[in-house]
Amino acid sequence: MTYTCIDISDALPIIENNAAIVDIRDLVSFQTSHMANAISLTNDNVQNFIDSAEKSQPIIVCCYHGNSSKGAAEYLATQGFKEVYSLNGGFSQWSAMFPEQCETGQ
Ligand SMILES: O=S(=O)([O-])[S-]
């Protein structure tokens, strides 16, 4: 299995299609602001996420600028997720384009 790189504008219909959004940035950055409904994925919770997630649900991986999300997306694809996307431009571009689609906190 592999993953697909998508642009910010491609993400909206995928999100509407019930995708999970996982954010792999550091926790302080995540808490400051993240994509609406994103969950923070860290080394500490990634295994639990993999074990409990529905593998057929689409997953969008978000990082800072869209580079490190590729490695994480590839990894998740090897763990059985069927539809994995890496978000080009990452949170920096998402927050610039869709500031109203961001939220703070956990
Ligand atoms: O998160 S990043 O690798 O795009 S700087």
UniProtKB/TrEMBL annotation:
GO molecular function terms noted in the UniProt entry: thiosulfate-cyanide sulfurtransferase activity
UniProt KW Cytoplasm keyword: yes
EC primary class: transferase
Keyword Cytoplasm: yes
TM stretches of this protein: none
Keywords: Cytoplasm, Transferase
Entry-linked SUPFAM superfamilies: Rhodanese/Cell cycle control phosphatase (SSF52821)
Domain Rhodanese: residue ranges: 15-103
InterPro entries: GlpE_sulfurtransferase, Rhodanese-like_dom, Rhodanese-like_dom_sf, Thiosulf_sulfurTrfase
Source domain of life: Bacteria
Gene Ontology CC terms, in alphabetical order: cytoplasm
E.C. code: 2.8.1.1
NCBIfam families: PRK00162.1 (NF001195)
Listed name of the protein: Thiosulfate sulfurtransferase
Gene source species: Marinomonas profundimaris
